[in-house]
TrEMBL record:
Protein name: UMP kinase
Biological classification of the source: Eukaryota, Viridiplantae, Chlorophyta, core chlorophytes, Chlorophyceae
PANTHER family: URIDYLATE KINASE (PTHR42833), URIDYLATE KINASE PUMPKIN, CHLOROPLASTIC (PTHR42833:SF4)
Family: Belongs to the UMP kinase family.
Aspartate/glutamate/uridylate kinase domain ranges (all copies): 115-322
Gene Ontology cellular component terms for the protein in this record: cytoplasm
Single Gene Ontology MF annotation: UMP kinase activity
Keywords: ATP-binding, Kinase, Nucleotide-binding, Pyrimidine biosynthesis, Transferase
Uppermost EC category: transferase
The enzyme's E.C. designation: 2.7.4.22
A Gene Ontology biological process term: UDP biosynthetic process
Pathway of action: Pyrimidine metabolism; CTP biosynthesis via de novo pathway; UDP from UMP (UMPK route): step 1/1
Domain of life according to the entry: Eukaryota
Length: 348
């Protein structure tokens, strides 16, 4: 009688939780309660104090249990419904995710350059328009970055602003430092456009700027940027270095060193470095490999000398390739020959 009295009191106080506990007991036919049972009065989980783990049961007020002593059949029916709902919820959550972990783990690729600093010039984004951003080019670049990101690469991106304004070619009479600041704002415009294109593809990203503008972007903080990369976010750097007289190539080389990037990839509209403009001269010679020193001595138009020197001093290889060819970012990260490599070894 004492045992049945305890059962009645607990069922009245927290009927769904007791029923959840009764189910396995009813199947075994052994006494159900001990001092280890903790019952919560609200919709909750029954806790087993022997192992400290929840049983996973969570009942709502719409439970089909009747007042009084439920039968084993009643308990089993509700348990089956709960398991089925849990399975459906799990499947729904998996399908609804923008990108599942399967897309990353299924590649099983070994990258030569697992962390990449990608430099995209403003001129590349303007396409054939001559000014501003060509939406088709912007979407293509975003798709390339998205594919590389889903393949497991850690990607940081530096964007130029030459499609809007370039400080070095400012109107005559304009202060150069002032002109460079205008150019920095142009890079932020491109960074925000790229972020929008990436997030439209379901890729989580962050824009960080060297000049604070907290309403639209995060301020550049090195440790936070590295954490974003580790958390599988694409980081887009805007506003160059935040200082005039430095190009966005130099900003990209600086960020590559700060992010501990394995490679500096310079995305262009041609498939490497040539001894002259391949668009104007069909006999232009393409270099497969170059040394930092050779770039400076031969005055090759890879990037400015400050950027090359930064890469040289930090032993960061530079890879110049055509971003308009699909899959090149991933192939380049794998170490495939997709452009010109500039490093300490040079031509072999």
């Amino acid at each position: 009688m004492q045992f049945m009295s305890r059962v009645g009191n607990l069922v009245t106080a927290a009927k769904p939780n007791v029923c959840a506990y009764l189910l396995p007991v009813a199947r075994r036919g052994s006494p159900p309660f001990s001092s280890s049972l903790s019952v919560r009065s609200s919709v909750s989980t029954v806790v087993d104090h022997h192992n400290g783990n929840g049983t996973g049961y969570a009942f709502h007020h719409t439970s089909s249990f009747i007042l009084g002593s439920p039968s084993v059949g009643d308990l089993e029916a509700d348990n089956c419904r709960r398991d089925r709902n849990h399975q459906l919820s799990t499947v729904s959550t998996t399908i609804g995710a923008p990108y599942s972990t399967t897309a990353i783990n299924s590649s099983n690729l070994t990258y030569k350059y697992p962390r990449v600093l990608l430099k995209i010039s403003g001129e590349a984004l303007q396409g054939k328009q001559g000014f501003g951003v060509d939406p088709s080019v912007l979407n293509h670049v975003a798709e390339e970055i998205a594919e590389a990101h889903r393949s497991g690469l850690q990607l940081a991106v530096v964007v130029g602003g030459g499609n809007y304004f370039r400080g070095a070619t400012a109107p005559k009479g304009m202060d150069r430092a002032q002109a460079d600041y205008v150019g920095m704002l142009a890079t932020v415009m491109n960074a925000l456009l790229l972020q929008g294109a990436l997030e439209n593809l379901g890729i989580e990203s962050r824009v960080q700027t060297a000049i604070e503008m907290r309403e639209v972007a995060e301020p550049y903080i090195r440790r936070r940027a590295i954490r974003h990369l580790e958390e599988r976010r694409v980081v887009i750097f805007g506003a160059g270095t935040g200082n005039p007289f430095f190009t966005t190539d130099t900003a990209a080389a600086l960020r590559a060193a700060e992010m501990n990037a394995n490679v500096f990839m310079k995305a262009t509209k041609v498939d490497g470095v040539y001894d002259c403009d391949p668009m104007k001269n069909r006999n232009a010679k393409k270099y497969e490999k170059l040394s930092y020193r050779q770039v400076c001595i031969e005055s090759l138009k890879v990037m400015d000398e400050t950027a090359i020197t930064l890469c040289k001093e930090n032993d960061i290889p530079v890879l110049v390739f055509n971003v308009m060819e699909r899959g090149n970012v991933v192939r380049a990260a794998l170490g495939h020959n997709v452009g010109t490599v500039v490093d300490g070894c040079g031509a072999v």
